[in-house]
Known about the structure:
Blueprint: E1 8-11, E2 14-17, E3 20-21, H1 22-29, E4 33-37, H2 38-55, E5 60-65, H3 72-80, E6 84-87, H4 90-98, E7 106-108, H5 115-124, E8 128-131, H6 134-147, E9 151-158, E10 180-181, H7 186-195, E11 200-206, H8 217-237, E12 243-248, H9 263-280, E13 288-292, H10 295-298, E14 302-313, E15 319-323, H11 332-336, E16 343-344, E17 354-360, E18 369-377, E19 384-387, E20 408-413, E21 416-421, H12 426-429, H13 442-449
Parallel strand pairs: 4-20, 5-6, 5-13, 6-7, 7-8, 8-9, 9-10, 9-11, 11-12, 12-13, 15-17
Antiparallel strand pairs: 1-2, 2-3, 4-14, 14-15, 14-19, 16-19, 17-18, 20-21
Amino acid sequence: MELFPDNSAIVDGRLRIGGCDLVELAAHFGTPLYIYDEATILARARDFREALAHAYPGRSVVCYASKAYSAPWLLALLRDEGLGLDVASAGELFVARKADFPRERIWFHGNNKSEEELKAALHERIGRIVVDNVDEAALLGRLTKERGMRQAVLLRVSPSVDAHTHEHLTTGKLDTKFGLGIESGVAEQGVVEILKWPSLDLRGYHAHIGSQIHELEPYEAAIARLFAFAQEMKTKHGVLLRELSPGGGFGVRYTMSDPATKPVDTIRNVADLLSDAARDARVDPLPDITIEPGRALVGRAGVALYRVGSVKRIPAGRTYVAVDGGMADNIRPTAYGAKYTAVLANRMDDKKSIADVAIAGKYCETGDVLIQHVDLPLPRAGDLVAVPTSGAYQLSMASNYNMALRPAVVVVANGTARLVRRRDTYEDLIAADVAPTPVTPPAERAKISS
């Protein structure tokens, strides 16, 4: 049960989470169904906050990276735990508003923030805007000047560090769409542009080198380069380092073959690296530190539950177990080969007829296979397949492909399940469609009026 939420157990051969029987949840709410264990989320939030505070002697903030999964119920939980929040779009900022998340604890990220998004952030008077590029610095400088306000910002830099993860999850190399390269000198150009605008308050620097990082060395290299860059900018431009963020990306386990590292241990070690680097650089006072766990905070708290529709045995090939979900609610296996494992939630004690099967989705794509190989008691139609570590980057990237209905979400705690997102209806699928309205281009209107 190591990959499942903290409050998981087997009772009478059936899987329970948060005191709730998954067979009963499936009968009541239908499938596919996403189940979050509230206690696991709260435990991770507290563990991360305490680990950072104990290891780093200066001020520190744990900011949840809401791109992993953003929902009002979740942000309300984290709000009350005193966490900060990273948003990467006006939509995520809107959800934060709905959760009444304290604006001063919101950081706005993104490599191509629109003018409207920046205006929304300024209107809400959020705590920090993380500037990604020179053009954004100039745009934000103009907008803040027009409003007669001063906005605290961090500059996102790329430290040219290989995080040793999947290429789609690597964000800290020199050749990346995110931030400005230190090595190339472009990061310094970003500093110079920000300093042109008295309406921008450059507090420090941010870097994020990737996701699903299980090693400490990439963080060590990134932190060293961040402090070296900060010292250079102090010498050349008089910028004092008041805040620093090495990002997040702390790895979690999806299968038992993944490294057995724990995110809280990684966070504690990263905090130690930050403390040592600040001491070696003789930064006084110590800069405020922000870390940004997303997947590490909610990944293990979530479980995806599917019902088996059919079992297809291919002669001299695999056995395909088709479930009622797939790439519409979890695109990760199709997009970059993410690996998962699974259990039969209604047959947890069954050790007979173990077979190597593929868990196939129901969508019209050959690549719609959630799990290529997993050993299970030979499934039957009607069985329930539970996939652990499904709390991050599944619902946030879900779609209505094949006009599928996005799944319902429940939160479990102390034997009670709360529905926090209803399943889509067919009417939802066309709710944004409108009847075609003829539009005459301005040039044609001018001809007509003349």
